[in-house]
Automatic annotation (TrEMBL), chains A, B, C, D:
The chain crosses the membrane at residues 65-86. Residues 51-124 form the Thioesterase domain. The keyword Nucleotide-binding does not apply. CDD domains: PaaI_thioesterase (cd03443). Keywords: Hydrolase, Membrane, Transmembrane, Transmembrane helix. Pfam families: 4HBT (PF03061). This is PaaI family thioesterase. InterPro entries: HotDog_dom_sf, PAAI_dom, Thioestr_dom. The keyword Hydrolase applies. It comes from Kistimonas scapharcae.
């Protein structure tokens, strides 16, 4: 097998059965472009905050899941990869529509992966939030690290 | 009345009835020290991620709620205050116990409030995550801003 | 005049005569694409850190200057715009060559502008650092803000 | 020798002779409290930005140096430790006086150290900037990492 990364189906399964918040939000893996991942949260009234827009924590959770998916899609089942840092700028209010996260790996080191994520709201041209973050990667088996 | 900030009860009501993710996590307002807020998420198996610890998005949601509570506790019902930016460093894995957020306002300007939040896991001495962030404050009524 | 933004020459003058650190680094304004700015620091042995690469503070200073230039290029002489927040991820070591900052405005609100900046080292394909940040914008004259 | 960390004098020497920007700013190591470091930049007119206050890049450079000093003071001569990420919130304008950075190590892992830094301006009670960041630590010799 050439590719060691997980497939869309594998990642969808992990997100839907292992991570409660992703489950609760109904996160869908839309695709795995090279060095990236596209995830979606279907709009639901249960995700809004005062003012009627999808809440910040939903956006952060989706962005975090998208970085995780991009790394799994590239490296395979590094299930124990953990977020080291996440930074989000909220830009424009999302509309009452699905939220899309477009994650891209900027650096894949031995110990740390750095990603950026653009969040969009279906039907709006502007980015609704910009995220960057790093994931700490577990040492490979047998490496003694 | 001297104090224009909201009370613990008011903020608890807002978090429990207006913000779905806080509701779902069962966020509790433990107190409102000066220029700050202490919030808690009771431990629940429904909040864990692969590896058995409380997930990052739960920590981010709690930190965001704690900054919001600190601002409401100081300024009153600025319900439309919105997170402009949030940065989190994950430090140590939380245990299977309640998660505590200790938020403190670092700056309260006319347009922007900046806070830092220390997250702890009951029974562990080390901080589990360090958060900083800013909230954009709506213009006061009548200010035309 | 249609465009209220400053020109490349105006911004170059400001950076070279008003901001000591930019002066010291010899920052050059390479261009002002729409909603953005491209700045450059010519390589110099006086900018390196242990290990022989351009130091982190030089990269942060260049990124900050690039965000400032993008905002001046769009809004005009808002000289008192001040950085509210800056977040940088260092990705790959820059080489012994000029450092380029490509800044883009993600949001231009009344009070806050949010930008992202990609830093490159001439001759290397990978981004050397990823920056995002926000600038606080002074109230317009006569707005009473 | 019990302590493997570097001394104030060792770190002062490194900052004054190896890091051009620190040299140019005249950074002084004031002390090495446990798990931390206190650094100072003497006020100089050559460090100001339009508006007459010490520029943001000077604050970022000082905060970065303070994190580096805290790590060297704890771990010894890990000269190749490199900044992975730095996040700064600018809070209040510093005065025309020395700038102080108070850095504290929040986490010291095998691969990553996370610090926070509070910046103060002598004579002002409020924090002028809040910084958090992570340093990537080189593998120990012989560890094969």
């Amino acid at each position: 097998m050439d590719k060691k990364g997980l497939s869309v189906e594998d990642i969808q399964h992990l997100l839907s059965h292992g991570i409660p918040m992703s489950e609760g939000m109904g996160v869908i893996v839309d695709g795995l472009p090279e060095d990236g991942a596209v995830l979606r949260v279907p709009y639901s009234d249960s995700l809004v905050r005062p003012g009627g827009t999808i809440s910040g924590p939903v956006m952060m959770a989706l962005a975090d899941a998208a970085m995780y998916a991009a790394i799994l899609g590239r490296l395979g089942a590094v299930i124990m990869a953990v977020t080291a840092n996440l930074n989000i700028h909220f830009l424009h209010r999302p509309g009452k529509s699905d939220l899309i996260a477009n994650a891209k790996i900027l650096k894949l080191g031995k110990r740390l992966a750095v990603c950026e994520v653009a969040l969009y709201s279906i039907g709006q041209p502007e980015m609704v939030a910009q995220v960057s973050g790093s994931y700490s990667l577990p040492p490979e088996e047998g490496s003694g690290g």
